[in-house]
Amino acid sequence: MKKKSIASPARPKPHASPPKSYASLQTNAAATRPANTATSPAPLKQHAAPQTYAAARPASPLNSAAFHPAPPPFLSRFFSSSWLSNPIKQFVLLCAIFLAALLLIAIFSPPPKIEMASSEAPLAKLSSLKIIPGEQYGYEIAGADGSVPASIKVGTAPACPGVVMYDRLRVSQMQDLEFASVCLGNDGVEIDSKGNKIGTNFSYRNISWPYFSPWMLAVKEGWNWSANTSIRVGGLSSATSQEIRFKTIGKENYLGRDGFLASISLVLPNGGESEVLQVLVDSQKRILLRMESGANTIRLISAPFPLNSTALPPNSS
Questions:
Q1: What total number of domains does the chain contain?
Q2: Considering only CA atoms, which of 299, 309, 291 is closest in space to residue 255?
Q3: Is residue 212 within 8 Å of residue 193, measured between CB atoms?
Q4: Model's pTM, two decimal places?
Q5: What is the full per-residue pLDDT of the chain (317 aa) written as tens digits?
Q6: Is the separation of the CB atoms in 289 and 259 below 8 Å?
Q7: Is 100 helix (H, G, I), strand (E, B) or coil?
Q8: 293: domain CATH number?
């Protein structure tokens, strides 16, 4: 009896070459697959390295060279010097240039126009101007730093159709300095060479004079009066105004002369008053006998009429 031979299972043949990689198999499969762009998935792509924020940010026009041009060559050399390389010193230099520019503008630009105006209540004067040419009055102006004598002379001048008052200050033992002069009309108000009024009843055009003011011709017992001044600087829409009030507060005798004591006050924004001066006005000549403002005083020490000189302090004549 013949024995049947049993075929042994076939052994797998060894690979002729190493196994292909996944990438090569994918490429072969894509080559043998029917071309169908609608349904065929796209081959896998390898991920690129992640971008930084600076690289992924879109370019801004503010970072372009158009907005940050390179400085001119002379400025580059200027700011690259050893002294100006410090940012603080650069800032100080720029501030100095800016201040110099403002100074030049202030020097060469036209000054602002200043407009001054005044208004006053009606004033009933009791008399006309009482001083006459040829008279001379002596005053002492005293303050915390000492005193200085002043003399007021009354006269005439070709350019003044009224009476001229001259203010002379003693600047040395040998010299008197003419400080100011004013031309007064018959009612005491300042006038020009043609007789036109250029002052007010409480002020002169270019000076502030304590020795005489036109309102002194109206002072009496129970008297009160007010005036207003305003200043407007060109370019500003509003003006700064100040009300001034005058009133009689009593009567006094000074060196044998009877006078009316008047108070001059500034009106405050809240409606109150702040007294700035007390003025004693001679009841006959209508000129200043004494003025007080804090520690400062002006007082009559000589006149064309008799004074009680025994009431004067020593060394005042």
A1: 1
A2: 309
A3: no
A4: 0.61
A5: 444 455 555 555 554 455 554 445 455 554 555 555 444 455 555 555 555 444 455 555 545 555 445 555 555 555 555 555 566 666 667 777 777 777 776 666 666 666 778 889 999 999 999 999 999 999 999 988 889 888 899 999 999 999 999 887 655 555 556 677 899 999 999 999 999 999 999 988 877 788 999 999 999 999 999 999 887 766 666 667 889 999 999 999 999 999 999 999 999 888 888 989 999 999 999 999 999 998 899 999 999 999 987 655 444 44
A6: yes
A7: helix
A8: 2.40.360
Nearest to 242 by CA among 233, 232, 229, 231: 229
Name residue 161's amino acid.
P
Specify the 3-state DSSP secondary structure of 164.
strand
Which of 107, 106, 103, 85 has the alpha carbon at shortest distance from 95? 103
In a domain, 241, yes or no: yes
- Report d(CA 149, CA 170) in Å as an integer: 6
Confirm whether 98 is domain-assigned: no
